[in-house]
Amino acid sequence: MTPTTRSVGLLAAGALLLTSGCAAFTDDPGSSGSGSGKVEIAAAFYPLEYVAERVGGDLVDITGLTKPGVEPHDLELSINQTAALQSADLILTEHGFQPAVDDAVEQDVKGDVVDVEKVVDLRAAEEGGDEHSHEGEEAPAEEEEHDHGELDPHFWHDPLLLAQYAEDVRDALAEADPDNADAYEANAKKVTDDLTGVDEEFKTGLAQCKIKEVVVSHDAFAYLDKYGLEFESIAGLTPDAEPNPAQLAEIGEHAKEHGVTTIFSERLVSAALADTLAGDLGLKTAVLDPIEGLSKDTAGEDYLSLMRHNLDALKAANGCQ
Fold first, then answer.
1. Crossing angle between the packed helical segments 303-318 and 181-205, to the nearest 10 degrees
2. What is the overall mean pLDDT for the chain?
3. Which of 35, 80, 201, 211 has the fewest CB atoms within 10 Å around its CB?
4. Tally of CA atoms within 13 A in the half-sphere of 114 that contains its CB
């Protein structure tokens, strides 16, 4: 080999090493397109992310679009999150719940979309829940921005509906990764059994309550009325849909009339309205978690444990035996 030939070879090898080194530093092993061989999932917010974790197990890589501490209604996608969503093999979302995600999904996404609205029987927004929903009034601008339409999106408070969604995620994963269909089937069976168990706990725990009325921060808990409780909300379907003073007074009268002992606030949003109302009425305050997302306080929890915390809080507030 001549000196010139040897120099060219060394230069080529150096270029190859440099290119490989750059690739090693730019690859993100936890994002879509990582080359892990796993199914890449983008999950819009926590309950859907929980389903993905339970059904997918170690066979999937999940990008949770709503990070802990972020109110999911207010989500704004970063460039990296948008890229992960657009390149994911599977996208778990609920149309109408997060406008930023809806807009991104309408763009160029390559994966299959498992949309809650298309696979779960959502209840109409006017069924149960908030009776003080600005009827006859012009909705505030911020409420219009988060318009959920005619459906109540908070389906995950009915564990059986979340189990139904898990089955659709199982089917989508089996189609994307048929070699592991049996594993997804087994995982889905486990989470469905867990969700059915929590449903039975709520049925038993709330079967005999002295007080049937519950006052909550916002209209996120109407699906829990299947267990015999009635939910009155201070705000509407979104936490920023605040009532006017006349509506607050009406809610206060409702609470006194039905012997309510506790006004429930929630994590991720301000407790000011709930605290003010409780103070005016001389009532207790407690937290009822809408489980829309995790927070610093609940980082070590999961859907099942948060549902059980909610059950304990309801039993204590409503005198349930």
1. 10
2. 84
3. 35
4. 28
What is the percent of the chain with per-residue pLDDT over 70, rounded to a whole number? Answer: 79
Say how many domains are in the chain: 2
116/140 Cα distance (integer angstroms): 27
Domain containing residue 255 = 207-318
Q: Using alpha carbons, select from 234, 274, 272 the residue that is nearest to residue 251.
A: 234
For residue 11, tell me if it sits in a domain. no
Whether residues 71 and 181 share a domain: the answer is yes
- Residue 280, classed as helix, strand or coil, is helix
| Residues 44, 192 within the same domain | yes
E-assigned strand segments in 124-271: 213-216, 230-233, 262-265
* Structure tokens, 103: 């807009």
Q: Helix 159-176 and helix 181-205: axis angle, to 10°?
A: 180
CATH number at residue 112: 3.40.50.1980
Q: pLDDT class for 239, splitting at 50, 70, 90?
A: low
Q: pLDDT by residue (tens digit) across 103-143?
A: 999 988 999 999 999 999 999 986 443 343 333 334 444 44
* Residue 80 CB contacts under 8 Å (≥ 6 apart), including other chains: 31
Say what the pTM is.
Answer: 0.81
Same domain, 175 and 241: no
